[in-house]
Specification:
53 residues; 51% helix; flat
């Protein structure tokens, strides 16, 4: 795995991409999972897979 060195400010993310990401997160949070119901609110692997799909 290669890591890129980032210099300067990050590139701006288009608002439609951010809106889509927010919608996906809201839809995912509406479905109770083991990570959202338990006392330790970890990162749900299904959420990460959905966001990367």
């Amino acid at each position: 795995m290669m890591l890129a060195v980032v210099t300067g400010a990050p590139a701006a993310v288009p608002s439609d991409v951010l809106d889509d990401l927010r919608d996906r997160v809201r839809r995912h949070r509406a479905v109770p999972t083991a990570s959202t119901l338990g006392p330790a609110h970890g990162v749900d692997p299904a959420l990460l897979a959905d966001l990367l799909a």
